[in-house]
Predict the 3D structure of the following.
Amino acid sequence: MDKLKVGVIGVGSVVREIYQHLYYSSDFSDILDIVAVADPNDEYRNWFCDTYNIPADRRFTDHKEMLEKVDLDATQINTPDHIHAGPTIDSLEAGLDVVVPKPTAATVKDAHAMIETAKRTGRLMGIDFHKREDPRIKEAEARYQGGRYGEFQVGVWYMLDKLMVADPNHDPMFFATADFAEKNTPISFLTVHMADALMKIVNLTPVEVRATGYSHKLPSLNPIAVKGYDLADTEIRFKNGAAAHIITGWHLPNTAHATTVQSSRMVCSEGLLDLGLDTPGFYEMHAEGLFQVNPLFKNFEKDGTVTGYGISSPGRMYQKFLAAQKGELDGDIRASMMTPMELGFYTALVLEGAEASLDAGTEIADGVVAGVPIDLKDLVMRELGPEAVNTYGL
Ligand SMILES: NC(=O)c1ccc[n+]([C@@H]2O[C@H](COP(=O)([O-])OP(=O)(O)OC[C@H]3O[C@@H](n4cnc5c(N)ncnc54)[C@H](O)[C@@H]3O)[C@@H](O)[C@H]2O)c1
């Protein structure tokens, strides 16, 4: 066996922006055979399948039919967050390994069900938080966990996108669905990246979350106004007393020098880390202005190969799936892939906590909602019961 037979479930924006390159133009393409696709949206299913010659009898509107009819080794679940659990669990039950784009799920109930199914079936599940493969994050993780900076105390992380990401009036729309920014929040879409990267580095368990949401810009858009948050500040308290503010939004002017503007400063007992996520080291100046290029994330190389951590993060998961299916995956690597942190449980917990905080919050000024503190142990107790509180060390 030298290739994995992969069924792709959902072929919307993330496939257009990232995964089509992984499947067909990356250093990992030679281990991937995309044999079938399931997506109820005719336009997206036909776009992908026509472009990549997926035969008519391998195109499905329903993933269950695909799982029944096609011989597969793995699936990738590129559906909206609240639809991750069903196709993931069905795939694991069918004996397949599964890649899921971040976040694991929209709720801890879904994330827990996915993790429990993976454990019970003995299949592998990989959550594609691509920042985990960013060399700067990996280096920070190794150095922090080597004890170089002492104990994490307080940190601030920023991830601010251009307005065009959330604006349904932008032509072409960035996401496949016009109501994307109403169905998602900066928390579900952006905070999860930064919360996950931070937790990977410090390996601490979150215990409380409180969010503040700002809704000034999106409601003023026209002709389609968006009922949603422009900006959110999520404060996470960790078990050791440390605190982090994760500030995310999608309303930077479209003239910004990059689609996403990011940075982080973490203060620790013996030093600090400044993660220059904002300064990948490549600016271009041309007739349209000055722009930042991030060659670490997604690189279109001269020979057509697409590289960068956006590609290598899921690519390395498939390499491990292939090794496991050949009986060659090291036991320690398998175990390290299946911890709650690696499977994104705590990030799903922060996400659900932050959204619950805002839902129960009060409008303290025009367009500003101050959320209530959410005790994450109580949340898990309520949603999953005492055994899960224990399993996840809360
Ligand atoms: N890695 C990243 O940085 C990154 C970037 C963007 C999106 N994402 C994640 O990828 C996932 C998909 O996001 P998107 O932006 O592509 O959304 P999207 O709305 O553009 O596409 C989702 C696709 O899933 C299809 N779909 C819906 N229900 C389905 C079902 N039951 N079975 C099969 N297909 C179904 C839709 O028809 C659509 O084509 C989300 O979880 C999102 O958070 C990750």
In short: Residues 138-302+349-391 form a domain with the Dihydrodipicolinate Reductase; domain 2 fold (CATH 3.30.360.10). The radius of gyration is 21 Å.
